[in-house]
Amino acid sequence: MRGQRIATLDDVARTAGVSRATASRVITGQGPASARARDRVTAAVTKLGYVPDAAARALASRSGTRLAIAVIGHTAAILDDPYVGRVLTTAAHIAAEREVGVSLHWVPLSAPAALAGLAGSRGLSGLVVVNPTQPALETVPRSLRGRVVAIGVGTSGVPSFDVDNRSGTDGVVRHLVTTGRRRIAMVTGPAWLPCVDRARDAYQQIMNETGCETRVVRGDFTAARGAAAAAEIMTRWPDTDAVFALSDLTALGVLDGLHARGVRVPADVAVAGFDDIAFACLSRPALTTSTHPVEEIAAAAAKAVLDRTGDTPATFFPSTLVVRESA
Amino acid sequence: MRGQRIATLDDVARTAGVSRATASRVITGQGPASARARDRVTAAVTKLGYVPDAAARALASRSGTRLAIAVIGHTAAILDDPYVGRVLTTAAHIAAEREVGVSLHWVPLSAPAALAGLAGSRGLSGLVVVNPTQPALETVPRSLRGRVVAIGVGTSGVPSFDVDNRSGTDGVVRHLVTTGRRRIAMVTGPAWLPCVDRARDAYQQIMNETGCETRVVRGDFTAARGAAAAAEIMTRWPDTDAVFALSDLTALGVLDGLHARGVRVPADVAVAGFDDIAFACLSRPALTTSTHPVEEIAAAAAKAVLDRTGDTPATFFPSTLVVRESA
DNA sequence: CTCACACATGAGAGCGCTTCCATGGCAATA
DNA sequence: TATTGCCATGGAAGCGCTCTCATGTGTGAG
After folding, report:
1. Closest-approach nucleotide to residue A32, Cα vs C1'
2. A246 lies in a domain?
3. Closest chain A residue to B252 measured between Cα atoms?
4. Domain that holds residue B114
């Protein structure tokens, strides 16, 4: 600010010698305006450096101007995940078509009420919640739920879109079994994410079917945890011949941890991830994983909330196995 | 919406049987209120599912409630860059200390005026521009510049914070020279980024000093371009013995492209990157690069804009060499 | 020359909220 | 009992904008 007053529409109107209504008409391009008025107003705008205030505009026009993406998580580091970038990128395109902007917000697990604050903003034309939790969603009053959709399943009350974790896990683990692995360990994800349970169930079911022991280690979707998990697994179950991590980032960490212990991949131990992030094909060995139609999911979510498409309780998208070198 | 009207402060006040002023006092916690009023208002809030509208609040209180990060780029894919995630994460923490939220926005190179729209929003308590360009910055009227800082150098008009690209490049390239490389190629970044020129200058200067030929290929900071650049370089200058990429993502792509051609790294060709992203130490061979104090930079920028710290034209942060396996 | 009909314009209400200010009520003091 | 002072409260004025509606101006047809 520096003492500088920000120019308002009033200032523009006064400078141009027209009414506020006329100035507004010229600036928004809505409604009639004479050439003379148009000239005077645009001149005043550039002279004063006028920029309309989005908040006031949204307030007055009773219509949002932004699509918000809220990522729920226990640490802001969640935003480092390339997954979020892909969601945001896609949403930005969908939103741009409808002439609205996008914004990204982080809602700490410890302050779920922030979500309600977002949902209640009239400046928003919609809210997409990534990795929703039931407590967070429940801070949002029912009357506002119509403005919200979720990416990630396991919560009720709003339409949700997610990859089919169950069949995705199934595909990866069966691939490991098919290629002769039997002592398969799994590195899961954060306990508070419902999709993690679904994936672990799928893994356990296959292990039961094939009469194999389950070896589950809790992960948190980070690479660092993956390296630690690798060490933990090889210590507890030295004969492990495959590791499935529910996140590529973690799988990459596992690769690193295994490498550090002199374990060869895939000769000694096969490693598979989940997500197919960009780096998956860049690692050495290239990571076998399951690819997610993140862009499709994000597009569906963005469209659903922007167009207020009826109530679709939960939509699942297929995840497909990508076999590379690590398994 | 679904026909549901969103509850307003008026509704709350009416339900609680108090005036709007009292309701506001209770909800914000500012100003006196009797226990009875407090109870009635909070009851009404939960009953109606009332959530204050941030936009209206910002408008009325004449104070922002959000720190916005705007990333300039030719494609929204810029947001995929882990760099942005780190900036956002750091900013989120700084902002949280001051009880403001953060939001991330993408400003296309083709629509620079979007930046002015952000700068003019009264709902914001500050704006951090990542990868600023002069045209974009110039859409922001002078009176609004006090609310803006930049991460990335080469533009004037607002305080800027950046890594010292020049000395960073210097460190990496000299390391290549020291380890006996002489036919060093460089993969640069997008032409519109001023910092790219600075880095290229530093590279060229060293090449001149050591009497080496310069081999420059244009990059765009993506991995895909890195792979293509590797092919291009090895075709045009088959005797190349080192490649320096001005982005780790690109360097990883170079690694991939080289691997595809059967070139051994670092035996045949050394590869060095720039940024030290998380994956740099996960690649095989692990990437030699230059680490950036991104968190420090982002924190400085966020603090500067939030606290309106005087005019610091341009602040540079040191980038330091990290030697791993690839060079 | 008069009438009707566009078109351009301004006054003003209102979006949901905060905040200043004046008022009313009460307990403590004289 | 009369007075002081404070706390709780409501009225009302805005914040910057959009948009409806009534008014004014100019054109062409009759």
Report:
1. C8
2. yes
3. A282
4. 64-158
